[in-house]
């Protein structure tokens, strides 16, 4: 089977074109159906009493007053839930040494972060449940809290989980080549300390779940705002003791996820347990404060990095010491060690160098648990790597673009293996860098920067190359024992009128999955995209699969859809050949009709074929296969991950009186392999960049020394908003993966991976002539001013 | 979180509103634009309130000028202030402030009476009203009171308005022919409350300076005003920074706020003198 994607004049050429999103009209009409829109007969609401302490023993719970409140139906404690729901442990076997204690849906005898659910109050309405929750009396004995990352392992710091021995959750050292010798012999060495701010995903739609339990059928149905319905199915089945076939997870419209909605949250599992206990539908929708204290946090890293170069700027070695604090539990089932592990895997990623040492130290503390958020670990690794590369270039007097030209993997060097043992099938650093230079008019921009400086205006240009991990194989989770599918499937069916229904296991979170699938299926079968109806997000109606995470929907789910669509095409043509008395190979399907392959002459509409197959099958030869439903699955196997690459640039202006950083413009060139829908890809990149810019300038969760979250609202936790966003110019180099027919890699995280580093480098480029450097994100006006030495306390 | 409200009543006129307020016996709350109150209710910072909706009271609406004073009804929306020709002519500071207050949706609902009664030290209108030497008009069971802005603001969210009184209007002296009124502030994002800001008014009697977001209430920066009257902008900046004791929070330390107030004053002075800061 060959598909000439390079030929824009080929029939049914939807792959590679911007086609309208099938679900856009419904969403724009306000007819989206989110979990909160769902109303079921006998439905009740749950609100949670949450720990006000970062660390405290729970010594008593009195629900008398709450139970007397109008509308309150039931109050449940950790022990009540534990009677029907087993605890879980967030470890993976291949992350050697990772430890974490069993976690219950509701805290049992100890609460370990501010916001941990302790008691559940069920009432007729959410407001009544909150009224009840306010009246539950919980007695706490405060315990000493662990809140500082860098002293978490000190001898005089209390141990959070006594039976674990210490506060070390995970440590991994990767050592390649002879790092010490490389540093000893280097012409230039630069060392710096970087901090990335703890932040969270801030989905527009908060976490939401509605669970119904029908004892008669023994069937649990969960309507869930989730990225991974099958993973949720496994978890509900396992911990509530049900067969997987009796758990149905439905994921309708989802208002953004960014990794937040791919984890197991105790309040959501408690909601399911309560449904089972009460045998009626129970709904939980997190409010914004709950989102800030219980959605996973991420990016809380402090890193010391060193780079060694020779006199020509050739990179000889990186030496990275990464620390991160993850809360009191490793999050189930993907764990909280992946982010640190990624930092080790990804530092130095774009560069061809020989000596690499990196260690991550992952510690427990009494804060909200951290886990995977869009571009897991990438922004940290890219910030450290690109920060060091720029600092070394400045010290050597080499232009940052030239510095990268001298060090990136050559475009003809593939396949290649990095010093961190990452395997690259085919990347395009050199071509991407050149495209960026052309796109931004690099030399003219440098001239503009100099002219501005002559007028007293301080501007800077920052570059950040990056690699992005996409299309993960079972090497990411399955190998570690997690029941998280790296495979996806698609079932494509032709209905009697010739229209097509395709059910896929990848999910729609608002990013355009269904548009991508509709155009692949349309091209694969040979119909118009409007003739394709996509079904996602229902474990009972779609094939089994992984869902949305790690930039895998198009590359893996798209390939399964293409294979299934091509199989349906073959099946249709088998029938058509019999009906038209000709070789199926001489026929094609175009725009919903069977045609002659050679000249495109119309032979028969699909509706006619459908009429015969479904209603007059007696007229077809006996024994003729007429399987107008085809299913295919796909799992990447040749490489553990399909790496992509790219490079971003930022142009900023710094107000040296206020410290304000204005984003003037942003560029990104990236290579996600085959582009299925240019507009969707560009908007993925832009949205990702915005989240990276948020990390650079705005987003940071503040805690005090007692572990109290200080800014759990959108007034105090600043997300990037349109007013501050620069124009973003996006372009692509296309190096399709040879592992699949489709050739698509992921594009969902590239923007986030590199944006913050580009801004940091731009600010430092601006500050360098006047003396000052920033390395602690976010680069607030105050931090910039302090870096300039302009603020005295 | 879901709000827990004790009740709701729509007042038909001022008398009705005052009666409802009296009947509420301490738990009644005026609902104007709702842009501060509803947010607080939705976070259950306040529960059980009996809301008295004043949005239909015509007597609280409208902007008039009698030649010497500009009178702005309490229910005038920020968005109306932004485009009103009388405001633009007689109190340009208020018009300029609307450029930096919140976002369009909030300006469409929020009222000047609500903003002044709410007395958030980070809000622009309270500072402007004091900088312009305005009067706050209130009405209570015992009749009307006129409170000079200098006597109105007490503390964070606290004013001298009594629990049984309603703010009906504010009035301002119309700007003199040579009067200059500017507002300079710095926030993290457009529409955010300022980390620090300065209202500067220059009229025949002298300069008036009121800062935003650096104290528990809007206050005249008298020492800095005196330095400006003496033609000493550097001294004014130094005097302002010296006098301020701003709060620290997750957005900015006291030191940074103090520094910013100085930068904003410098820019405000440059703005009215036509020089670059
Ligand atoms: C996201 C957001 C951003 C914002 N940013 C800014 C900003 O940058 N700058 C700024 O200044 N404001 C800002 N605001 C607040 C906004 O300007 C409000 O409109 C204003 O503070 C209150 O006016 P209101 O009419 O909405 O009052 P309401 O919210 O209805 O009431 C506020 C308080 O005043 C009392 N009250 C209202 N009217 C009267 C009256 N006539 N007599 C007696 N008491 C009364 C109420 O009982 C209540 O206690 C922001 C608001 C939001 C939601």
UniProtKB/TrEMBL annotation, chain A:
<dbReference type="Pfam" id="PF01315">
    <property type="entry name" value="Ald_Xan_dh_C"/>
</dbReference>
<dbReference type="InterPro" id="IPR008274">
    <property type="entry name" value="AldOxase/xan_DH_MoCoBD1"/>
</dbReference>
<protein>
    <submittedName>
        <fullName>Carbon-monoxide dehydrogenase large subunit</fullName>
    </submittedName>
</protein>
<feature type="domain" description="Aldehyde oxidase/xanthine dehydrogenase a/b hammerhead">
    <location>
        <begin position="29"/>
        <end position="144"/>
    </location>
</feature>
<dbReference type="InterPro" id="IPR016208">
    <property type="entry name" value="Ald_Oxase/xanthine_DH-like"/>
</dbReference>
<keyword id="KW-0500">Molybdenum</keyword>
<dbReference type="InterPro" id="IPR000674">
    <property type="entry name" value="Ald_Oxase/Xan_DH_a/b"/>
</dbReference>
<dbReference type="InterPro" id="IPR036856">
    <property type="entry name" value="Ald_Oxase/Xan_DH_a/b_sf"/>
</dbReference>
<dbReference type="InterPro" id="IPR046867">
    <property type="entry name" value="AldOxase/xan_DH_MoCoBD2"/>
</dbReference>
<dbReference type="GO" id="GO:0005506">
    <property type="term" value="F:iron ion binding"/>
</dbReference>
<dbReference type="Pfam" id="PF02738">
    <property type="entry name" value="MoCoBD_1"/>
</dbReference>
<keyword id="KW-0560">Oxidoreductase</keyword>
<dbReference type="InterPro" id="IPR037165">
    <property type="entry name" value="AldOxase/xan_DH_Mopterin-bd_sf"/>
</dbReference>
<dbReference type="Pfam" id="PF20256">
    <property type="entry name" value="MoCoBD_2"/>
</dbReference>
<dbReference type="GO" id="GO:0016491">
    <property type="term" value="F:oxidoreductase activity"/>
</dbReference>
Automatic annotation (TrEMBL), chain B:
<dbReference type="InterPro" id="IPR051312">
    <property type="entry name" value="Diverse_Substr_Oxidored"/>
</dbReference>
<dbReference type="GO" id="GO:0016491">
    <property type="term" value="F:oxidoreductase activity"/>
</dbReference>
<keyword id="KW-0560">Oxidoreductase</keyword>
<dbReference type="InterPro" id="IPR036683">
    <property type="entry name" value="CO_DH_flav_C_dom_sf"/>
</dbReference>
<keyword id="KW-0274">FAD</keyword>
<dbReference type="InterPro" id="IPR016166">
    <property type="entry name" value="FAD-bd_PCMH"/>
</dbReference>
<dbReference type="InterPro" id="IPR016167">
    <property type="entry name" value="FAD-bd_PCMH_sub1"/>
</dbReference>
<keyword id="KW-0285">Flavoprotein</keyword>
<dbReference type="Pfam" id="PF00941">
    <property type="entry name" value="FAD_binding_5"/>
</dbReference>
<dbReference type="InterPro" id="IPR005107">
    <property type="entry name" value="CO_DH_flav_C"/>
</dbReference>
<dbReference type="InterPro" id="IPR016169">
    <property type="entry name" value="FAD-bd_PCMH_sub2"/>
</dbReference>
<dbReference type="Pfam" id="PF03450">
    <property type="entry name" value="CO_deh_flav_C"/>
</dbReference>
<dbReference type="InterPro" id="IPR002346">
    <property type="entry name" value="Mopterin_DH_FAD-bd"/>
</dbReference>
<dbReference type="InterPro" id="IPR036318">
    <property type="entry name" value="FAD-bd_PCMH-like_sf"/>
</dbReference>
<feature type="domain" description="FAD-binding PCMH-type">
    <location>
        <begin position="1"/>
        <end position="177"/>
    </location>
</feature>
<protein>
    <submittedName>
        <fullName>Carbon-monoxide dehydrogenase medium subunit</fullName>
    </submittedName>
</protein>
<dbReference type="GO" id="GO:0071949">
    <property type="term" value="F:FAD binding"/>
</dbReference>
């Amino acid at each position: 089977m060959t598909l000439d994607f390079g030929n824009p004049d080929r029939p049914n050429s939807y792959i590679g074109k911007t086609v309208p999103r099938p679900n856009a009209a419904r969403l724009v009409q306000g007819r989206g159906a989110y979990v909160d829109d769902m109303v079921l007969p006998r439905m009740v609401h749950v609100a949670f009493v949450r720990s006000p302490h970062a660390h405290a023993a729970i010594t008593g719970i009195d629900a008398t007053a709450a139970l007397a409140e109008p509308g309150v139906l039931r109050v449940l404690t950790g022990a009540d839930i534990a009677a029907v729901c087993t605890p879980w442990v967030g470890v993976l076997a291949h992350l050697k040494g990772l430890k974490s204690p069993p976690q219950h849906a509701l805290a049992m005898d100890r609460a370990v972060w501010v916001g941990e659910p302790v008691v559940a109050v069920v009432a007729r309405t959410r407001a009544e449940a909150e009224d009840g929750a306010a009246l539950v009396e919980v007695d706490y004995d405060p315990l000493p809290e662990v809140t500082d990352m860098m002293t978490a392992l000190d001898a005089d710091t209390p141990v959070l989980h006594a039976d674990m021995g210490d506060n070390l959750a995970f440590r991994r050292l990767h050592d390649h080549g002879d790092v010490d010798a490389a540093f000893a012999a280097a012409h230039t060495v630069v060392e710096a300390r970087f901090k990335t701010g703890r932040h969270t995903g801030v989905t527009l739609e908060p976490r939401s779940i509605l669970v119904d339990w029908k004892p008669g059928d023994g069937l649990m149905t969960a309507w869930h705002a989730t990225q991974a319905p099958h993973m949720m199915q496994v978890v509900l089945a396992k911990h509530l003791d049900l067969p997987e076939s009796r758990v149905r997870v439905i994921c309708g419209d989802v208002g953004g996820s960014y990794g937040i909605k791919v984890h197991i949250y105790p309040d959501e599992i408690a909601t399911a347990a309560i449904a089972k206990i009460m045998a009626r539908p129970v709904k939980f929708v997190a409010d914004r404060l709950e989102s800030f204290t219980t959605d996973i946090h991420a990016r809380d890293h402090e890193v010391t990095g060193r780079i060694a170069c020779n006199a020509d700027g050739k990179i000889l070695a990186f030496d990275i010491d990464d620390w991160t604090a993850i809360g009191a539990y490793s999050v189930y089932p993907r764990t909280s060690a992946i982010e640190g592990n990624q930092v080790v895997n990804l530092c130095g990623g774009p560069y061809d160098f020989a000596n690499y040492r990196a260690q991550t130290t992952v510690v427990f503390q009494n804060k909200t648990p951290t886990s995977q958020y869009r571009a897991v670990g990438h922004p940290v690794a890219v910030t450290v790597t690109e920060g060091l590369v720029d600092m070394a270039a400045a010290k050597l007097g080499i232009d940052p673009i030239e510095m990268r030209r001298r060090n990136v993997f050559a475009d003809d060097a593939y396949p290649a293996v990095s010093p961190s043992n990452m395997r690259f099938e085919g990347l395009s650093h050199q071509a991407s860098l050149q495209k960026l230079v052309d796109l931004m008019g690099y030399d003219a921009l440098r001239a503009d920067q100099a002219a501005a400086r002559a007028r007293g205006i301080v501007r800077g240009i920052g570059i950040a190359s990056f690699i992005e991990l996409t299309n993960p194989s079972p090497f990411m989770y399955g190998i570690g024992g997690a029941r998280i599918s790296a495979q996806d499937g698609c079932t494509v069916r032709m209905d009697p009128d010739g229209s097509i229904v395709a059910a896929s296991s990848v999910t729609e979170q608002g990013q355009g999955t269904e548009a991508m699938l509709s155009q692949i299926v349309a091209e694969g079968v040979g119909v118009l995209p409007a003739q394709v109806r996509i079904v996602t997000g229902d474990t009972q109606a779609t094939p089994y699969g992984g869902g949305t995470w790690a930039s895998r929907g198009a590359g893996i789910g798209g390939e399964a859809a293409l294979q299934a669509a091509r199989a349906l095409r073959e099946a249709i043509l088998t029938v058509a050949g019999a009906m038209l008395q000709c070789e199926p190979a001489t026929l094609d399907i175009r725009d919903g009709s069977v045609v002659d392959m050679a000249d495109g002459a119309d032979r028969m509409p699909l509706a006619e074929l459908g009429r015969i197959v479904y209603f007059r099958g007696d007229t077809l030869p006996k024994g003729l296969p007429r399987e107008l439903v085809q299913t295919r699955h796909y799992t990447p196997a040749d490489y553990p991950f399909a790496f992509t690459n790219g490079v971003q640039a930022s142009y900023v202006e710094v107000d040296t009186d206020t410290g304000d950083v204005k984003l003037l413009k942003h560029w990104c060139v990236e290579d996600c392999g085959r582009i299925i829908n240019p507009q969707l890809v560009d908007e993925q990149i832009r949205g990702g960049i915005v989240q990276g810019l948020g990390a650079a300038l705005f987003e940071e969760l503040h805690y005090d020394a007692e572990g109290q979250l200080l800014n759990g609202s959108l007034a105090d936790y600043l997300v990037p908003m349109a007013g501050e966003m620069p124009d973003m110019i996006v372009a692509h180099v296309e190096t399709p993966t040879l592992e699949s027919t489709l050739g698509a890699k992921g594009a969902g995280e590239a923007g986030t991976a590199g944006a913050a580093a580009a801004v940091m480098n731009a600010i430092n480029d601006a500050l360098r002539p006047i003396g000052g450097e920033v390395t602690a994100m976010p680069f607030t006006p105050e931090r910039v001013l302090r870096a300039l030495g302009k603020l005295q306390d | 979180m879901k709000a827990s409200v004790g009740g709701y009543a729509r007042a038909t006129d001022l008398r009705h509103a005052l009666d409802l307020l009296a009947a509420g016996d301490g738990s009644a709350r005026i609902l104007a634009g709702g842009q501060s109150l509803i947010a607080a209710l939705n976070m259950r910072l306040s529960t059980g309130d009996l809301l008295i909706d004043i949005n239909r009271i015509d007597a609280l609406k409208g902007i008039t000028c009698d030649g010497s004073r500009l009178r702005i009804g309490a229910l005038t929306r920020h968005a109306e202030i932004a485009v009103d020709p009388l405001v633009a002519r007689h109190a340009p500071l208020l018009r300029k402030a609307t450029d930096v207050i919140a976002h369009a949706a909030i300006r469409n609902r929020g009222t000047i009476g609500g903003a002044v009664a709410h007395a958030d030290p980070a809000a622009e209108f309270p500072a402007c009203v004091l900088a312009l030497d305005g009067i706050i008009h209130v009405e209570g069971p015992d009749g009307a009171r006129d409170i000079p802005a200098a006597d109105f603001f007490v503390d964070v969210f606290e004013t001298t308005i009594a629990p049984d009184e309603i703010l009906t209007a504010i009035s301002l002296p119309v700007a003199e022919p040579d009067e200059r009124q500017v507002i300079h502030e710095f926030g993290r994002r457009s529409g955010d409350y300022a980390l620090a800001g300065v209202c500067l008014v220059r009229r025949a009697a002298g300069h008036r300076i009121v800062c935003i977001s650096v104290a528990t209430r809007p206050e005249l920066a008298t020492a800095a005003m005196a330095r400006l009257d003496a033609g000493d902008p550097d001294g004014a900046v130094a005097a302002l920074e010296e006098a301020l004791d701003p709060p620290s929070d997750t957005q900015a330390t006291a030191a940074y706020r103090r520094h910013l107030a100085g930068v904003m004053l410098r820019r405000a002075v440059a703005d009215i003198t036509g020089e670059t800061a």
